[in-house]
Amino acid sequence: MRILLDECVPAGLKRLIAGHAVRTVPECGWRSSKDGSLLEFAETQFDVFLTIDRKIESEIKRVLRIAVIIASVSSNRLVDFHPILPDLLEAIDRVRQGEIVRVG
User: What is residue 103's predicted lDDT score, i.e. its pLDDT?
Assistant: First the structure.
């Protein structure tokens, strides 16, 4: 899977998601982009968009050509992703285009 990490997700999570091509929003030059524009960009190059932005689900107004995973963590520190990592990896493997999945 080609996975894009939102800028609010710690870049260090990349090394914990083995077997996938993972990039961050800043690496793609899309820092501080509005969610709608960011998702349009992501749809052209990625299979999964991973974020902690809980309000993104209400902002999506159409069926996407990308899966969205919303990680429910207490902060955007990498240590807070460790408890949900098994569920997050399972969601990455199972999520399908157009789905929005919450983990954690």
Answer: 97
Instruction: Report whether pLDDT(31) > 80.
Output: no
> Structure pTM?
0.91
Spatial separation of the C-alpha atoms in residues 52 and 3, rounded to whole Å: 14
Distance, in Å, from the CA atom of 1 to the CA atom of 20, rounded to the nearest integer, reads: 5
Residues ≥6 apart with Cβ < 8 Å to 10: 76, 77, 78, 81
Q: What residue spans define the domains of the chain?
A: 2-103
Strands 48-51 and 67-71: parallel
What are 75's two structure tokens? 């902060």
What is the average pLDDT across 38-49?
A: 91
Report how far residue 36's alpha carbon sits from residue 61's, in angstroms, rounded to the nearest whole number. 9
Burial 38-65 (b: 16+ CB within 10 A, else e): bbebbeeebbbbbbbbeebeeeeeeebe
